[in-house]
RNA sequence: GCCUACGUAGCUCAGUAGGUAGAGCACUUCCUUGGUAAGGAAGAGGUCACCGGUUCAAAUCCGGUCGUAGGCUCCA
């Protein structure tokens, strides 16, 4: 029956489970016609066609290896495809190799993809008879949602699948592919439904593209922030506190440089910082609604008869500050920052380096405003976002999320708020997407995502309007007419969390931090211990300028010291020998530009101090190529609004 | 939380017909005083994640726990 069933099967155990017919056994009287491929497709469309077809090719190989396999769904995704299977046993790495071998064989043989159309009822019967219960469920969903009279099937070789297409003309187009990983995936993404086995693969038009992509994955691995954190001695993780970063002296220096900037920025932009407790009786969160909606994500401590919570966010306790006294309209906008330590009990399997942690610190702030101040204050916050991300050469995108189906408050207030958000975005000339119905139940929001070196998007900044908490906390202010009014709250974070932002920044720069953030901004390297005294003289001048510098006076050769400073990505390496000591100069080498020759000590101290003061982004960014849009330039390093 | 894989020296890793552990880097000491990415020698360092089981014998086989990675789910 199977085109490839004559291949040697290297399965040692007999697959268990109910025997399942394959649709290919049942379509004898169905006529499959040719599968026309249109002219003038974009590259993205061609890749989609190839990847989706490769998913079918893989399913054919899996079914030939496991005759009792049930197939679920197999779409194309960015850079490749996956297909979900219900299999009699778990897959091993050897299985993947065997599946890939079989795929290659069929690709080489060049089996045509053919298309057939049939009434949906007939298709349902066919897949039912074949025992392909997942496909039957898919058909039922199609019936429910679209209610078409007919559906299409595609066939290549021994494999027939319910599919809307499109596909390539022949499996001979599917030669540049590699299976990358196997993972569990819930059927229909529902954690209450069976877990299937998902095989991921990547597929390309040419071998060159495939090779380039695999190389990209290698490069991305090198830029992984966990690896960089280890290499640059910035942070560690320990099982004694899973999901929480342990910052080293070097790493903490970097974080503090960020926080120092954050505080200066807040000061300049009219924010006041408060500092509140970490631990609260549960009453606070009952009042804010978190206890009801967010309890599973909170760390809860029982102390004698009282239940305490480690705070998962700053809002409720900031509101306690707001309501601690009578407020006047003259105080608004009242901008209150709090970078409290937060704990969220994230699922163990969701933890991911600095990107997803259980303990973190946000550059959080809550702004209390009148309805009339929405637009101007949002514009002000967006301006801060632009300032901050531009400082790091990060590209980003805005999304406006509007009123969801379930919402609190008056539709008219929502409409006005959304119009204000749009006006603020439009006013800044900002390009943004709209996620209709994607807002929080308490108010619309603007999400800001940054792009990392892997092309992944990370949500760091968020700006949210909140009409609900002012009610929960009975916030008010006295208006000019002496009436009592309700303020609106803006929740905003720009870095998001310092942890995640550090992770994104490290991957973005491949670990090369700008001078102003570097744990050691300059290392003075004496050529021999004859020059050590002079090296310390130079060091004193660097320190006097407020710079983070040290002398490498170990009994080692200069070459080794240079090498280690380079590996640590130290921005400035200042070499001094007897010659420099005599002339009062120093020999400068930078991480960015290499050896630069002799300088007056005072000149180079001034240069470094200036870069630190202006927070110059003196980092050469080598963006990793974007693979799916050849027409597009590589990811821009300059911010684009 | 679910699926799969993994857990050997501070780090990166080797160690399969079960016979009480190795390399490189880092670290310590000594020699070396060297002009822009690794000078040389010696030494020290591990209850093989933890707990239990099988066995004369377990890093190795089995079970459990914890942690990590990649997915899934979640992400006010």
Helicity level: 25-40%
Percent in strands: 15-25%
* Computed Rg: 30 Å
* Average pLDDT, all residues: 87
How many β-strands, per DSSP? 29
**From the helix content, strand content and strand pairing, which structural class follows?**
alpha+beta
Give a verbal description of the structure.
By secondary structure, the chain is of the alpha+beta class. Helices cover 34% and strands 24% of the residues. It is built from 18 helices and 29 strands. The strands form 7 sheets. Strands 11, 15, 16, 17, 18, 19, 20, 21 and 24 form a 9-stranded mixed sheet that branches. Strands 1, 2, 3, 7 and 8 form a 5-stranded antiparallel sheet that branches. β2 and β3 form a beta hairpin. It is globular and about 90 Å long. Residues 1-17 and 630-641 have low confidence and may be disordered. It binds one RNA strand of 76 nucleotides through β7, β8, α6, β21 and α16.
Can you give me a brief rundown of this structure?
By secondary structure, the chain is of the alpha+beta class.
Write the layout of secondary structure elements.
Elements: H1 43-65, E1 70-71, E2 76-77, E3 80-86, H2 93-109, E4 113-119, H3 120-129, H4 133-145, E5 150-156, E6 159-162, E7 176-186, E8 195-204, H5 207-222, H6 225-231, E9 235-236, E10 246-247, H7 249-268, E11 272-273, E12 279-281, H8 283-288, H9 290-293, E13 300-303, E14 306-310, H10 315-322, E15 334-338, E16 341-343, E17 359-369, H11 374-391, E18 396-401, H12 411-427, E19 432-435, E20 445-451, E21 457-466, H13 469-472, E22 477-478, E23 484-485, E24 488-497, H14 498-509, E25 522-526, H15 532-544, E26 549-551, H16 558-567, E27 572-576, H17 578-583, E28 585-590, E29 594-600, H18 601-614
Parallel strand pairs: 11-15, 18-19, 25-26, 25-27
Antiparallel strand pairs: 1-3, 2-3, 3-8, 4-5, 5-6, 7-8, 9-10, 12-14, 13-14, 15-17, 16-17, 17-24, 18-20, 20-21, 21-24, 22-23, 27-28, 28-29
This protein binds one RNA strand of 76 nucleotides through strand 7, strand 8, helix 6, strand 21 and helix 16.
């Amino acid at each position: 029956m199977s085109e490839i069933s004559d291949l040697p099967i290297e399965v040692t155990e007999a697959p268990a489970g109910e025997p399942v017919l394959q649709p290919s056994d049942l379509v004898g009287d169905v006529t499959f016609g040719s599968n026309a491929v249109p002219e003038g497709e974009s590259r993205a469309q061609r890749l989609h066609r190839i990847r989706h077809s490769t998913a079918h090719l893989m399913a054919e190989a899996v079914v030939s290896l496991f005759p009792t396999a049930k197939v679920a769904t197999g779409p194309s995704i960015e850079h490749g495809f996956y297909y979900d299977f219900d299999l009699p046993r778990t897959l091993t790495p050897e299985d993947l190799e065997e599946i890939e071998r079989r795929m290659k064989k069929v690709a080489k043989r060049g089996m045509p993809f053919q298309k057939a159309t049939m009434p949906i009822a007939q298709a349902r019967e066919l897949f039912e008879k074949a025992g392909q219960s997942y496909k039957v469920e898919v058909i039922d969903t199609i019936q429910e949602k679209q209610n078409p009279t007919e559906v299409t099937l595609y066939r290549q070789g021994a494999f027939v699948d319910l599919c809307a297409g499109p596909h390539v003309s022949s499996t001979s187009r599917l030669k540049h592919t590699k299976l990358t990983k196997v993972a569990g995936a819930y059927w229909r993404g529902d954690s209450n439904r069976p877990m299937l086995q998902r095989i991921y693969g990547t597929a390309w038009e040419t071998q060159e593209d495939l090779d380039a992509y695999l190389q990209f994955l290698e490069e991305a691995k090198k830029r992984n922030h966990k690896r960089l954190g280890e290499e640059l001695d910035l942070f560690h993780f320990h099982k004694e506190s899973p999901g929480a970063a342990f910052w080293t002296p070097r790493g903490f220096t970097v974080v503090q440089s960020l926080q120092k900037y954050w505080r200066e920025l807040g000061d300049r932009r009219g924010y006041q910082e408060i500092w509140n407790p970490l631990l609260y009786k549960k009453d606070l969160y009952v009042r804010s609604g978190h206890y009801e909606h967010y309890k599973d994500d909170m760390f809860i401590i029982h102390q004698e008869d009282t239940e305490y919570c480690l705070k998962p966010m700053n809002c409720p306790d900031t509101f306690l500050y707001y309501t601690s006294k009578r407020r006047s309209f003259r105080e608004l906008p009242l901008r209150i920052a709090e970078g409290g330590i937060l704990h969220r009990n994230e699922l163990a399997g969701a933890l991911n380096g600095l990107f997803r942690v259980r303990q973190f610190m946000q550059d959080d702030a809550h702004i209390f405003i009148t309805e009339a101040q929405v637009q101007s204050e949002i514009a002000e916050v967006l301006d801060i976002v632009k300032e901050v991300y531009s400082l790091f050469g990060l590209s980003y995108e805005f999304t406006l999320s509007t009123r969801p189906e379930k919402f609190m408050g008056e539709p008219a207030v929502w409409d006005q708020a959304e119009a204000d958000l749009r006006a603020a975005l439009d006013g800044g000339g900002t390009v943004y997407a709209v996620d209709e119905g994607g807002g929080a139940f308490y108010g619309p929001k603007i999400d800001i995502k940054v792009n990392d070196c892997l092309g992944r998007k990370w949500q760091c900044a968020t700006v949210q309007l909140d009409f609900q908490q002012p009610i929960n906390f009975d916030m008010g202010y006295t208006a000019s007419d002496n009436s009592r009014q309700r303020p609106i709250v803006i929740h905003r974070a720009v870095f998001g969390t310092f942890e995640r932002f550090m992770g994104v920044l490290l991957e973005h720069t491949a670990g090369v931090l700008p001078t102003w953030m570097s744990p050691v901004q300059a290392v003075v390297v004496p050529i021999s211990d004859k020059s050590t005294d002079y090296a310390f003289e130079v060091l004193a001048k660097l320190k006097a300028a407020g710079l983070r510098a040290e002398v490498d006076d170990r009994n080692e050769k200069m070459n080794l010291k240079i090498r280690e400073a380079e590996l640590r990505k130290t921005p400035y390496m200042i070499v001094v020998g007897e010659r420099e000591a005599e002339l009062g100069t120093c020999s400068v080498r930078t991480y960015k530009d290499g050896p630069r020759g002799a300088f007056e000590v005072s000149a180079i101290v001034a240069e470094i101090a200036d870069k630190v003061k202006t927070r110059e982004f003196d980092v050469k960014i080598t963006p990793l190529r974007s693979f799916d849009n050849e027409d597009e330039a590589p990811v821009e390093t300059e911010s684009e609004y």
